[in-house]
Structure prediction request, 275 residues.
Amino acid sequence: MECFGYEWNVYRDWGWVKKVPPQARLEAWGSLMEDAETAFSAKTLLTEDDLVGKVVLDAGCGNGRYAFQAAKKAQRVVAFDITCSVDVAKANTDACENIHVVQADLLGPPFRPESFDTIFSIGVLGFTLDAEVAFDSLSRLLRPGGVVAVQFSHRGNVVFELMDNAIRRLSSRLSVGQLMRFAAFMAGIGKVMHGLRIARYANLILRVQPTRHHMFDWYSAARIDRRSYDDVFSWFERRGLEVIAHGKRDSTAARYLRAIVFPWALVVKGRKPVP
Ligand SMILES: C[S@@+](CC[C@H](N)C(=O)[O-])C[C@H]1O[C@@H](n2cnc3c(N)ncnc32)[C@H](O)[C@@H]1O
Prediction:
Protein backbone atom coordinates (compact mmCIF):
# COMPACT_ATOMS: atom_id res chain seq x y z
CA MET A 1 0.00 0.00 0.00
CA GLU A 2 2.92 2.36 0.61
CA CYS A 3 3.49 2.34 -3.16
CA PHE A 4 0.35 4.41 -3.52
CA GLY A 5 1.59 6.95 -0.98
CA TYR A 6 4.85 7.16 -2.92
CA GLU A 7 3.03 7.36 -6.25
CA TRP A 8 0.91 10.33 -5.27
CA ASN A 9 3.87 12.14 -3.80
CA VAL A 10 5.77 11.74 -7.08
CA TYR A 11 2.72 12.48 -9.24
CA ARG A 12 1.20 15.07 -6.94
CA ASP A 13 0.06 17.37 -9.77
CA TRP A 14 -1.44 14.56 -11.92
CA GLY A 15 -4.88 15.80 -12.93
CA TRP A 16 -4.01 19.41 -12.10
CA VAL A 17 -1.64 20.15 -14.99
CA LYS A 18 -2.73 23.13 -17.11
CA LYS A 19 -0.51 22.61 -20.17
CA VAL A 20 1.89 19.95 -21.47
CA PRO A 21 4.69 20.68 -24.01
CA PRO A 22 4.17 18.70 -27.26
CA GLN A 23 7.29 16.56 -26.71
CA ALA A 24 5.95 15.39 -23.29
CA ARG A 25 2.44 14.68 -24.56
CA LEU A 26 2.65 10.89 -24.39
CA GLU A 27 4.42 10.69 -21.03
CA ALA A 28 1.90 13.12 -19.53
CA TRP A 29 -1.14 11.52 -21.12
CA GLY A 30 -4.11 11.94 -18.76
CA SER A 31 -2.41 14.45 -16.45
CA LEU A 32 -4.29 17.58 -17.53
CA MET A 33 -6.99 19.18 -15.44
CA GLU A 34 -9.37 18.77 -18.41
CA ASP A 35 -8.51 15.03 -18.53
CA ALA A 36 -9.51 14.71 -14.87
CA GLU A 37 -12.79 16.49 -15.61
CA THR A 38 -13.67 14.13 -18.48
CA ALA A 39 -12.47 11.03 -16.61
CA PHE A 40 -14.48 11.97 -13.51
CA SER A 41 -17.77 11.81 -15.45
CA ALA A 42 -16.78 8.66 -17.35
CA LYS A 43 -15.56 6.82 -14.26
CA THR A 44 -18.50 7.69 -11.99
CA LEU A 45 -21.43 8.39 -14.37
CA LEU A 46 -22.41 11.06 -11.81
CA THR A 47 -24.64 13.84 -13.15
CA GLU A 48 -25.25 17.43 -12.04
CA ASP A 49 -28.20 16.23 -9.95
CA ASP A 50 -25.93 13.82 -8.06
CA LEU A 51 -23.54 16.61 -7.11
CA VAL A 52 -25.14 20.05 -6.90
CA GLY A 53 -25.77 20.94 -3.25
CA LYS A 54 -24.81 17.43 -2.08
CA VAL A 55 -22.54 16.08 0.64
CA VAL A 56 -20.17 13.82 -1.29
CA LEU A 57 -17.65 11.16 -0.27
CA ASP A 58 -14.56 10.31 -2.37
CA ALA A 59 -13.38 6.90 -1.11
CA GLY A 60 -9.68 6.35 -1.90
CA CYS A 61 -8.91 9.87 -3.10
CA GLY A 62 -5.21 9.56 -4.09
CA ASN A 63 -3.96 13.09 -4.75
CA GLY A 64 -7.50 14.56 -4.59
CA ARG A 65 -7.96 15.16 -8.32
CA TYR A 66 -11.51 13.78 -8.43
CA ALA A 67 -12.53 15.29 -5.08
CA PHE A 68 -11.60 18.61 -6.67
CA GLN A 69 -13.81 17.88 -9.69
CA ALA A 70 -16.75 16.91 -7.45
CA ALA A 71 -16.25 19.98 -5.27
CA LYS A 72 -16.87 22.31 -8.21
CA LYS A 73 -20.57 21.44 -7.84
CA ALA A 74 -21.03 19.77 -4.46
CA GLN A 75 -21.85 21.55 -1.24
CA ARG A 76 -19.14 19.61 0.59
CA VAL A 77 -16.73 16.82 -0.32
CA VAL A 78 -15.07 14.53 2.19
CA ALA A 79 -12.09 12.74 0.62
CA PHE A 80 -10.19 9.94 2.32
CA ASP A 81 -7.37 7.56 1.58
CA ILE A 82 -5.50 4.97 3.59
CA THR A 83 -2.02 6.24 2.65
CA CYS A 84 -0.02 9.43 3.13
CA SER A 85 -1.40 10.54 -0.26
CA VAL A 86 -3.87 12.44 1.94
CA ASP A 87 -1.09 14.98 2.64
CA VAL A 88 -0.84 15.60 -1.09
CA ALA A 89 -4.64 15.72 -1.49
CA LYS A 90 -4.85 18.21 1.37
CA ALA A 91 -2.13 20.44 -0.14
CA ASN A 92 -3.74 20.25 -3.60
CA THR A 93 -7.19 21.20 -2.33
CA ASP A 94 -6.24 23.58 0.46
CA ALA A 95 -7.80 26.53 -1.35
CA CYS A 96 -11.18 24.73 -1.57
CA GLU A 97 -13.13 25.39 1.60
CA ASN A 98 -15.68 22.71 0.76
CA ILE A 99 -13.15 19.84 0.65
CA HIS A 100 -12.14 17.97 3.81
CA VAL A 101 -9.40 15.36 3.62
CA VAL A 102 -9.12 12.49 6.10
CA GLN A 103 -6.74 9.53 6.41
CA ALA A 104 -8.89 6.42 6.83
CA ASP A 105 -9.43 2.83 5.78
CA LEU A 106 -12.32 2.01 3.48
CA LEU A 107 -12.93 -1.09 5.59
CA GLY A 108 -13.50 0.94 8.76
CA PRO A 109 -14.42 4.46 7.73
CA PRO A 110 -14.80 6.95 10.62
CA PHE A 111 -18.20 8.31 9.49
CA ARG A 112 -21.73 7.89 10.79
CA PRO A 113 -24.00 5.55 8.77
CA GLU A 114 -26.13 7.27 6.14
CA SER A 115 -24.16 10.51 6.28
CA PHE A 116 -23.52 11.07 2.55
CA ASP A 117 -25.82 11.99 -0.35
CA THR A 118 -23.34 10.80 -2.98
CA ILE A 119 -20.43 8.40 -2.74
CA PHE A 120 -17.88 7.56 -5.41
CA SER A 121 -14.82 5.37 -5.47
CA ILE A 122 -12.50 5.32 -8.48
CA GLY A 123 -9.96 2.53 -8.95
CA VAL A 124 -9.93 1.46 -5.29
CA LEU A 125 -12.20 -1.50 -4.50
CA GLY A 126 -10.07 -3.96 -6.46
CA PHE A 127 -7.10 -3.25 -4.19
CA THR A 128 -8.94 -4.45 -1.09
CA LEU A 129 -8.89 -8.15 -0.22
CA ASP A 130 -12.59 -8.51 -0.97
CA ALA A 131 -14.17 -5.81 -3.11
CA GLU A 132 -17.69 -6.72 -1.94
CA VAL A 133 -16.78 -6.21 1.71
CA ALA A 134 -15.39 -2.79 0.77
CA PHE A 135 -18.57 -1.99 -1.15
CA ASP A 136 -20.66 -3.03 1.85
CA SER A 137 -18.73 -0.60 4.00
CA LEU A 138 -19.44 2.21 1.52
CA SER A 139 -23.10 1.40 1.04
CA ARG A 140 -23.73 1.76 4.79
CA LEU A 141 -22.58 5.39 4.58
CA LEU A 142 -25.21 6.25 1.96
CA ARG A 143 -28.34 8.07 3.04
CA PRO A 144 -31.74 6.97 1.63
CA GLY A 145 -32.23 8.61 -1.76
CA GLY A 146 -28.46 8.92 -2.24
CA VAL A 147 -26.30 7.49 -5.04
CA VAL A 148 -23.13 5.42 -4.96
CA ALA A 149 -20.82 4.93 -7.96
CA VAL A 150 -17.96 2.45 -8.04
CA GLN A 151 -15.30 1.98 -10.70
CA PHE A 152 -12.75 -0.79 -10.40
CA SER A 153 -11.22 -3.86 -12.04
CA HIS A 154 -13.36 -5.77 -14.51
CA ARG A 155 -13.28 -9.56 -14.75
CA GLY A 156 -13.93 -11.26 -18.09
CA ASN A 157 -10.81 -11.47 -20.25
CA VAL A 158 -9.08 -14.69 -19.19
CA VAL A 159 -5.95 -14.24 -21.29
CA PHE A 160 -5.46 -10.69 -20.07
CA GLU A 161 -5.98 -11.77 -16.45
CA LEU A 162 -3.48 -14.64 -16.63
CA MET A 163 -0.83 -12.35 -18.12
CA ASP A 164 -1.62 -9.60 -15.66
CA ASN A 165 -1.48 -11.90 -12.61
CA ALA A 166 1.84 -13.34 -13.72
CA ILE A 167 3.43 -9.90 -14.15
CA ARG A 168 2.03 -8.68 -10.83
CA ARG A 169 3.50 -11.62 -8.98
CA LEU A 170 6.93 -10.38 -10.08
CA SER A 171 6.42 -6.61 -10.10
CA SER A 172 4.90 -6.53 -6.62
CA ARG A 173 8.12 -8.01 -5.20
CA LEU A 174 10.22 -5.12 -6.52
CA SER A 175 11.40 -2.26 -4.36
CA VAL A 176 9.78 1.10 -5.10
CA GLY A 177 12.87 2.22 -7.08
CA GLN A 178 12.91 -1.02 -9.10
CA LEU A 179 9.18 -0.74 -9.72
CA MET A 180 9.68 2.78 -11.05
CA ARG A 181 12.30 1.45 -13.49
CA PHE A 182 10.01 -1.43 -14.47
CA ALA A 183 7.20 1.10 -15.04
CA ALA A 184 9.52 3.16 -17.27
CA PHE A 185 10.32 -0.01 -19.23
CA MET A 186 6.63 -0.87 -19.69
CA ALA A 187 5.86 2.74 -20.65
CA GLY A 188 8.65 2.50 -23.26
CA ILE A 189 6.87 -0.53 -24.76
CA GLY A 190 3.63 1.44 -24.52
CA LYS A 191 5.15 4.33 -26.48
CA VAL A 192 6.34 1.98 -29.23
CA MET A 193 2.90 0.32 -29.42
CA HIS A 194 1.32 3.72 -29.53
CA GLY A 195 3.68 4.84 -32.31
CA LEU A 196 2.85 1.71 -34.31
CA ARG A 197 -0.85 2.30 -33.60
CA ILE A 198 -1.28 -1.17 -32.13
CA ALA A 199 -1.70 -0.16 -28.47
CA ARG A 200 -5.39 -1.01 -28.41
CA TYR A 201 -4.71 -4.52 -29.71
CA ALA A 202 -1.77 -5.08 -27.37
CA ASN A 203 -4.06 -4.13 -24.49
CA LEU A 204 -6.27 -7.09 -25.29
CA ILE A 205 -3.66 -9.28 -23.63
CA LEU A 206 -1.45 -6.97 -21.61
CA ARG A 207 -1.85 -3.61 -19.93
CA VAL A 208 0.63 -1.28 -21.61
CA GLN A 209 0.37 2.48 -21.56
CA PRO A 210 2.86 5.12 -22.65
CA THR A 211 2.83 6.72 -19.21
CA ARG A 212 5.24 5.61 -16.48
CA HIS A 213 2.75 6.84 -13.90
CA HIS A 214 -0.03 4.55 -15.11
CA MET A 215 2.35 1.61 -15.35
CA PHE A 216 3.61 2.18 -11.80
CA ASP A 217 0.05 2.47 -10.53
CA TRP A 218 -1.12 -0.58 -12.44
CA TYR A 219 1.64 -3.00 -11.55
CA SER A 220 2.23 -2.04 -7.90
CA ALA A 221 -0.41 -4.32 -6.32
CA ALA A 222 0.29 -8.06 -5.89
CA ARG A 223 -3.30 -9.02 -6.56
CA ILE A 224 -6.47 -7.47 -7.81
CA ASP A 225 -10.02 -8.41 -6.91
CA ARG A 226 -11.70 -8.28 -10.33
CA ARG A 227 -15.46 -8.64 -10.69
CA SER A 228 -17.96 -8.93 -13.51
CA TYR A 229 -20.86 -6.57 -14.04
CA ASP A 230 -23.27 -9.29 -12.96
CA ASP A 231 -21.35 -9.74 -9.67
CA VAL A 232 -21.58 -6.04 -8.95
CA PHE A 233 -25.26 -5.81 -9.94
CA SER A 234 -25.96 -8.57 -7.40
CA TRP A 235 -24.14 -6.61 -4.66
CA PHE A 236 -26.43 -3.66 -5.28
CA GLU A 237 -29.49 -5.88 -5.32
CA ARG A 238 -28.55 -7.66 -2.05
CA ARG A 239 -28.30 -4.28 -0.29
CA GLY A 240 -31.61 -3.05 -1.68
CA LEU A 241 -29.92 -0.56 -4.04
CA GLU A 242 -31.27 0.07 -7.51
CA VAL A 243 -28.73 0.14 -10.35
CA ILE A 244 -29.41 3.33 -12.31
CA ALA A 245 -26.41 3.52 -14.67
CA HIS A 246 -23.52 1.32 -15.72
CA GLY A 247 -20.89 0.83 -18.39
CA LYS A 248 -22.10 -2.57 -19.57
CA ARG A 249 -23.32 -2.87 -23.15
CA ASP A 250 -26.62 -4.61 -23.86
CA SER A 251 -26.04 -7.02 -26.73
CA THR A 252 -24.11 -10.20 -26.02
CA ALA A 253 -21.61 -9.43 -28.79
CA ALA A 254 -20.93 -5.93 -27.53
CA ARG A 255 -20.70 -7.18 -23.96
CA TYR A 256 -18.14 -9.77 -24.96
CA LEU A 257 -16.18 -7.22 -26.92
CA ARG A 258 -16.26 -4.80 -24.02
CA ALA A 259 -14.89 -7.43 -21.65
CA ILE A 260 -12.03 -7.98 -24.04
CA VAL A 261 -11.33 -4.43 -25.10
CA PHE A 262 -11.81 -2.88 -21.68
CA PRO A 263 -10.66 -5.64 -19.36
CA TRP A 264 -9.42 -3.25 -16.71
CA ALA A 265 -12.44 -1.38 -15.44
CA LEU A 266 -16.18 -1.47 -14.88
CA VAL A 267 -18.45 1.25 -13.57
CA VAL A 268 -21.80 0.90 -11.82
CA LYS A 269 -23.95 3.58 -10.20
CA GLY A 270 -26.97 2.89 -7.98
CA ARG A 271 -29.47 4.58 -5.71
CA LYS A 272 -30.60 3.70 -2.19
CA PRO A 273 -34.40 3.95 -2.24
CA VAL A 274 -36.21 6.14 0.26
CA PRO A 275 -38.19 3.78 2.53
C1 LIG B 1 -5.35 3.69 -8.22
S1 LIG B 1 -5.36 4.78 -6.84
C2 LIG B 1 -6.79 5.76 -7.25
C3 LIG B 1 -6.82 7.09 -6.55
C4 LIG B 1 -7.93 8.03 -6.97
N1 LIG B 1 -9.26 7.46 -6.74
C5 LIG B 1 -7.77 8.39 -8.41
O1 LIG B 1 -8.39 7.73 -9.27
O2 LIG B 1 -6.99 9.29 -8.70
C6 LIG B 1 -6.01 3.74 -5.53
C7 LIG B 1 -6.10 4.46 -4.23
O3 LIG B 1 -6.84 3.66 -3.31
C8 LIG B 1 -6.27 3.81 -2.04
N2 LIG B 1 -6.70 2.68 -1.20
C9 LIG B 1 -6.45 1.37 -1.41
N3 LIG B 1 -7.00 0.63 -0.41
C10 LIG B 1 -7.63 1.51 0.42
C11 LIG B 1 -8.38 1.35 1.62
N4 LIG B 1 -8.59 0.16 2.16
N5 LIG B 1 -8.88 2.45 2.21
C12 LIG B 1 -8.69 3.68 1.64
N6 LIG B 1 -7.97 3.89 0.52
C13 LIG B 1 -7.45 2.82 -0.10
C14 LIG B 1 -4.79 3.84 -2.33
O4 LIG B 1 -4.03 4.37 -1.27
C15 LIG B 1 -4.73 4.69 -3.60
O5 LIG B 1 -4.55 6.06 -3.33
